[in-house]
Amino acid sequence: MIYDTLLPKYDNIKETEKDLKNIPGVIEVGLFTNHADSYYKIHSENDFESIIPRL
């Protein structure tokens, strides 16, 4: 089953992710706590741009 829910703001999202994954039966939580070094944004004109987030 997939549940889509709105969570309140958490101070430590990595700890929240760990707590949710420790619930018996929970396989994945869909919280994106590990960020990539760069992202690609695809445009409708069949081109893309590379986005490097500022940390």
Low-confidence spans? none
* Total DSSP helices: 1
Distance from first to last alpha carbon: 35 Å
What is the overall shape? elongated
Tell me about the biggest sheet? Answer: 2 strands, antiparallel
Rg over CA atoms, rounded to whole Å, is 16 Å
Roughly what fraction of the amino acids lie in strands? 5-15%
DSSP strand tally: 2
Helix content: 10-25%
Provide an overview of this structure.
The protein has 55 residues and is of the alpha+beta class. It has a domain at 1-35. 16% of the residues lie in helices and 15% in strands. The chain has one helix and two strands, in the order αββ. A hairpin with a 5-residue loop joins β1 (39-42) and β2 (48-51). The relative contact order is 0.14.
Q: Helices and strands in order, then pairings?
A:
Layout: H1 13-21, E1 39-42, E2 48-51
Antiparallel strand pairs: 1-2
Explain briefly what this protein structure is.
The chain has 55 residues and is an alpha+beta fold.
What labels would you give this structure?
55 residues; alpha+beta; two-stranded antiparallel sheet; elongated
